[in-house]
């Protein structure tokens, strides 16, 4: 494995984005600082039974106070971009009306610090921390929430549009709708399948309305939507299993992709959903707005689901840690089976071929939009060893394999512009708390000390060279 015995390596196109991602609630802490309001996640984590070990994110990894150190760390790793989200209740404590200047100011300082270090800020407007006041008014099942979001987006874009070019609207609307309002494993923890469908549409509408508002403000911003996609396989070739695959692919992938990129909901998915509720809340003109052209599609990819028409089996690729319902509204009887692949600490099967499938499918079925991988990564049981290092060989191998797949997809003609590892640092993994570590950087929670894992050192090398080392001969 000496350098000179390696083949020349796998070079990515010039300008390829080498990034890492986080989200506000998972890293910031400082939940009571500088006039921040309450989000649904603050409420949710402080009710029993919602988070493993009763953990909360009041302190998280204290990024609100340590952002300068964290930006230095990104620059040291040679990242060309950093994807983060802004906390709505920090900026608009009640989700509407007056701005909390101190909250907004934090993001101005963060963005200025990133720019000063040559790291391009990629700003996500919504990563699940809905102001509690808006949930009290009904939350995402209410159409008005989408309008409140568009106002919020316009406000942030007006203030930061001069220094942030890359914007994305809603992170993973599937999770926000179906984990938040159907299975209840995410905030606000409701188990109301019909309301979850309304939430999904209103999250899409929020994307459309906010995109329209931001486009009217300035023409030079690059605006994207963000979806979490899974490769889906039927367990067998039986008709029942193939129908199960159609249903899960429909609700997880096509419902959002077709809306954002074709301005239409897939008919078969609407038919599945109409078994649960009528869809009168989808108004004329909504889909034209939702399907307005995008500059980038942000794709989060983690795993593959293997599904069967026979009910049963854990939701293996994303089993909930707490007592919850099914997020598969209208298709609750689909079974999730073990595909026989190695798994991460989340129990998620590792399958980079699924990423290839997704990327080539996007390029084929939705050819007009450039792509970035906005999240990809894995939790493993990391250990800080006596040498002061974290030898996370499995994570390194996971990211290496998925990046090689990205390279192959680019070679096959897929317009893939960048890659963001999830996550830059270990952080609050939602209902799983701090037990699941996704970071390239290890966080020693008692001291908040940041330690570069082996995967971070390796990723820095890749970012620096703009490519991956060749396989050892
Ligand atoms: C994504 N599922 O969440 C999020 O965007 C991140 O905030 C999160 O930390 C990361 O992936 C790792 O979990 C997901 O159950 C959470 O299918 C749950 C699911 C998918 C994505």
UniProtKB/TrEMBL annotation:
Keywords on record: Carbohydrate metabolism, Cellulose degradation, Glycosidase, Hydrolase, Polysaccharide degradation
Enzyme Commission number(s) of this protein: 3.2.1.21
Claim: Hydrolase is one of the keywords in the record: yes
Active site positions, chain numbering: 375
Domain of life of the native organism: Bacteria
Catalytic activity reported: Hydrolysis of terminal, non-reducing beta-D-glucosyl residues with release of beta-D-glucose
One Pfam family from the record: Glyco_hydro_1
Top-tier EC class: hydrolase
GO molecular function: beta-glucosidase activity
Keyword Repeat assigned: no
Family under the similarity heading: Belongs to the glycosyl hydrolase 1 family.
NCBIfam families given in the database record: BGL (TIGR03356)
Protein name as catalogued: Beta-glucosidase
């Amino acid at each position: 494995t000496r350098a000179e015995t390696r083949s020349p390596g796998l070079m990515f196109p010039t300008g390829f984005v080498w990034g890492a991602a986080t989200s506000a609630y998972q890293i910031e802490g400082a939940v009571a600082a500088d006039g921040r309001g309450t989000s649904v996640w603050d409420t949710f984590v402080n009710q029993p039974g919602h988070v493993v070990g009763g953990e909360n994110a009041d302190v998280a990894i204290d990024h609100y106070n340590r952002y300068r150190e964290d930006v230095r760390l990104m620059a040291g790793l040679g990242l060309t971009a950093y994807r983060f989200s802004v906390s709505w209740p920090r900026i608009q404590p009640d989700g509407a009306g007056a701005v909390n200047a101190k909250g907004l100011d934090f993001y101005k300082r963060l963005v200025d610090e990133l720019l000063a270090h040559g790291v391009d800020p990629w700003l996500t407007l919504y990563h699940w921390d809905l102001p509690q006041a808006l949930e009290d008014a009904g939350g995402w099942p209410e159409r008005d929430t989408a309008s409140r979001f568009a106002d919020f987006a316009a406000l942030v874009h007006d203030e930061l549009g001069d220094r942030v070019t890359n914007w994305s609207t809603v992170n993973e609307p599937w999770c926000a709708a179906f984990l938040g309002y159907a299975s209840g494993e995410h905030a606000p923890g409701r188990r109301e399948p019909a309301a979850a469908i309304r939430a999904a549409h209103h999250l899409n509408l929020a994307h459309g309305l906010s995109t329209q508002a931001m486009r009217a403000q300035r023409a030079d911003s690059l605006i994207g939507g963000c979806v979490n996609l899974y490769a889906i396989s039927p367990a067998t070739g039986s008709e029942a299993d193939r129908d199960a695959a159609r249903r899960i692919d429909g609700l997880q992938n096509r419902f959002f992709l077709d809306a954002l990129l074709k301005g239409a909901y897939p008919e078969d998915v609407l038919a599945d959903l109409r078994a649960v509720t009528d869809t009168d809340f989808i108004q004329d003109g909504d889909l034209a707005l939702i399907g307005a052209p995008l500059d980038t599609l942000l794709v989060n990819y983690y795993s593959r689901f293997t599904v069967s028409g026979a009910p049963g089996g854990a939701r293996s690729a994303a089993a909930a840690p707490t007592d919850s319902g099914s997020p598969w509204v209208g298709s609750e009887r689909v079974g999730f089976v073990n595909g026989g692949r190695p798994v991460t600490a989340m129990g998620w099967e590792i399958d980079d071929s699924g990423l290839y499938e997704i990327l080539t499918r996007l390029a084929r079925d939705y050819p007009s939009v450039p792509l970035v991988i906005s999240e990809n990564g894995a939790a493993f049981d990391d250990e800080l060893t006596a040498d002061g290092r974290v030898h996370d060989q499995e994570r390194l191998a996971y990211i290496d394999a998925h990046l090689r797949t990205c390279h192959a997809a680019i070679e096959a003609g897929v317009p893939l512009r960048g890659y963001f590892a999830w996550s830059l640092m270990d952080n609050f993994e939602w209902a799983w708390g701090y037990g699941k570590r996704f970071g390239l950087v290890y966080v020693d929670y008692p001291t908040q000390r940041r330690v570069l894992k082996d995967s971070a050192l390796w990723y820095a090398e890749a970012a620096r060279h703009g490519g991956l080392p060749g396989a050892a001969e």
